[in-house]
Amino acid sequence: MEKQPQLDAAQQPSATGDMNPESFRHYGHQVVDWIADYLGDVGKYPVLSQNSPGAIRSALPAHPPAQPEAMEAILADVDHIVLPGITHWNSPGFMAYFSITGSGPGILGEMLCSALNVNAMLWRTSPAATELEQVTLDWLRQMLGLPHPLFGVINDTASSGVLYALAAAREAIPDLHIRQKGLSGRAEVPRLRFYTSQDAHSSVDKAGIVLGIGQEGLRKIGTDSEFRMDVLELERAIQEDIAAGWRPFAVTATVGTTSTSSIDPVPQIADICERYALWLHVDGSYGGMAAIDPDMRWVLGGCERADSLIVNPHKWLFTPLDCSAFYTRKPDVVKAAFSLIPEFLRNAESLGDEAPNLMDYGNALGRRFRALKLWMIMRYFGQEGLAARIHEHIHLAQLLVQWINEAPDFELMAPTPFSLVCFRAHPRGIAGEAQLEALNERLMNQINTGGRFFLSHTRVHGKFTIRVAIGNLRTTEQDIRVLWTEIQAHLAPEMETA
Ligand SMILES: *Cc1c(COP(=O)(O)O)cnc(C)c1O
pTM value? Predict the structure, then answer.
């Protein structure tokens, strides 16, 4: 007879408590060993999950387990059912979208975070969670070269952060009292408008939708030859809108756009925002983090004048999802937009600046202790270690750029200020755009099917463009060499048939 996996004491029919500490220790060691092996071997898995749709669902029972199941059986299913359905973001070959890393110290921080399981809504609901959040974000501020004072708070995502920034910007419009009175059914409220470049992230559009500004309330500004917001067009648009009765209230600029990692001219945009009294939000979710590298400090030039700024440790600071740093020079305005304290949460400490209640700076009441993992990462690598790693990713991207520039059958499609390379194959003798489009899409799909790498694409001037995003701590120069060899190898047969 097959040996049945053993149930714990806590799984016996009469038990009503949690897994006991000894069982936790036993399975905890198993899980930590599993994680260590996984991180060591992650490059051996196909990066992009090769599952077909529905594979996981059909492998799982339709109904929940009525009786306890042994941990052995659960962990075995993680291996056999869950793992094949994982796209390995932690793989050195993951270069799609923006590449990220759940680093060792960050993963350990997450483990402690869930063990402590504190809710950092009020200072008193865990002083350490609130104060560590303030300290780590002040350290990060210093690493980025941003001036003091700057209030920081950690959100789940930049998408939440931009929503909060624009809610604050809306709150800052004098005389409209939108928080109290809302937007609809009020003849005295002009139509509101904010501005961003055509290359800004979709979370900016979504924030406008959620806030009742509407998609028409977001005016997209064109970009120059390097995909940066055209500031002359921005100012013209604002003037036009004012003349037509709109009420401009904010601009969001991007340092490191998602498509090509272009950098909007923040100092000039800040001038315009000052001239027209508009809230300036800067989205540095990916690119802003580069400022930790002293050679890259310049990328946040002008951001000291922003009303709010976001950089994402979960994007390019090796922090497991989720952790997005939101900075503002105007915490009082953000608080005015969001603070709403029900009686049961009122307490004596909720007054001072020394002990802010972080639930007052956004929509979420419950807040994870996200600062713990970030604090552990900062201490484990140190500022110089973090800078060296970001510097290396930029260096690897520049290597690939050099090879592309030297290869007659490839072309760069955008500048490479960070570690994102945008290029396409353009073999001699193939001039038709439709043909180039099909060829590059095929090339990317072949790479992705190969399993060692996962790349994604964008469109640059309407042209299909392959993106190689370098940002995982496990990615080495050797990986980039192998990728380049694979790309060239896949192009060769195309050239023969051309
Ligand atoms: C990734 C990214 C975002 C979205 O970040 P989330 O934290 O996933 O919401 C926003 N803006 C830019 C420029 C990004 O690269």
Answer: 0.96
